[in-house]
Design brief:
Chain lengths: ~260, ~80
């Protein structure tokens, strides 16, 4: 049985779907069989993140209603055969129960090493449905007070599910501003949330460019490299976190800071 | 003061306020569970069970449960 990790945040717009898609790709590139599940029923975006929106014929709701088999609803990524997506584009998610969702996830875990669930924003029914099927959680936050506050509320709610692990990814870190002491750093977020931070992901124009054309970020980009480190943590438990300030240190870094 | 310090203080303060203000449901569940647990050892007056949760200056919870019992159930030996 594969591991099931829910990627959640509470607050919307923190980059959860992009991280889920890229982390899935990084895990698959490292040799794992990965299935991504878009649990944001009706407001799904993982297909867009992966650039396979045109290939989705069936979705989670079709599986629930018996219109297709689970294997028929899975879309394999064209450039990575170990990465598959179960989308949820239909707007009929209101009938999808926690029990049905959990049974779908359970079936997926039999043929995947990792099932990553992209949780909807907010803390209503969709959140609980997604979390109840998982045994680990990654909370994505950004280094701004509103996002950290929502992450804290989500972590309190997750406590009720007694998950094996609850860890934090800090997204959109501006290394130049962290060095100047103008914004919260990863250490600040960790001390506020009292949860382990296993990923620090830099603000990177590459994400915007990739999202626009519908592809996973370039493997040489800062963004992808930081996600690769999170994948290493997930697979092997490594504790190294990407240093978003590194490229702004030293003489070259000084000029980079001025240029921003 | 640097922006990061101001931000961190704001975050810690708001998290503290959130935790201190959202406890009614938690206390109800805590009281019920505590009553059930204590009832294994004491004949507890269920109406007397009280629970309180406060948050200290470090953001940690201080939990206290008080109850009145009429008698001890059975005999307990240490070791």
């Amino acid at each position: 049985m594969g591991r099931c990790i829910v990627v959640t945040s509470g607050k919307g717009g923190v980059g959860k779907s992009t991280i889920t898609g890229t982390l899935g790709m990084a895990l698959a590139e490292a040799g794992a069989r990965v299935t991504l599940v878009d649990a944001d029923v009706g407001l799904n975006n993982l297909d867009l993140v992966l650039g396979i929106e045109g290939a989705v014929s069936y979705d989670l709701t079709d599986v629930e209603r018996g219109r297709c088999r689970l294997t028929e609803a899975l879309v394999t990524h064209p450039f990575c055969e170990d990465l598959a997506l179960l989308s949820s584009r239909a707007l009929g998610g209101a009938t999808l129960t926690q029990k049905t969702f959990a049974s779908v996830i359970s079936a997926l875990r039999r043929s995947a090493d990792y099932v990553l669930i992209d949780c909807p924003a907010g803390i209503d029914e969709g959140f609980h449905r997604a979390v109840s099927a998982a045994d680990e959680a990654l909370i994505v936050t950004t280094p701004v007070p509103a996002s950290v506050r929502d992450a804290d509320k989500v972590s309190d709610l997750l406590a009720a599910y007694r998950l094996r692990r609850v860890e934090v990814i800090v997204n959109r870190v501006r290394g130049d501003l962290v060095l100047k002491g103008e914004v919260l750093g990863v250490g600040d977020v960790m001390s506020a949330l009292r949860l382990p931070v296993v990923g620090s992901v830099p603000e990177d124009d590459e994400v915007l460019l990739s999202a626009t054309v519908g592809r996973i970020s370039d493997k040489e980009s800062e963004y992808y490299r930081s996600i690769t480190m999170i994948a290493s943590h997930v697979m092997m438990g490594t504790s190294a976190v990407y240093d978003c300030t590194a490229r702004y240190r030293g003489i070259i870094g000084f000029f980079r800071r001025i240029a921003r | 003061m640097k922006g990061s310090k101001v931000g961190l203080e704001r975050v810690k303060k708001v998290l503290l306020m959130d935790k201190a203000g959202a406890q009614e449901e938690l206390i109800a569940v805590l009281k019920s569970d505590a009553c059930e647990l204590l009832d294994c050892y004491f004949e507890v007056d269920p109406r007397s069970v009280d629970a309180a949760v406060t948050v200290d200056e470090h953001g940690c919870y201080r939990v206290s449960v008080t109850a009145r019992a009429f008698r001890v159930r059975g005999t307990f030996h240490s070791g």
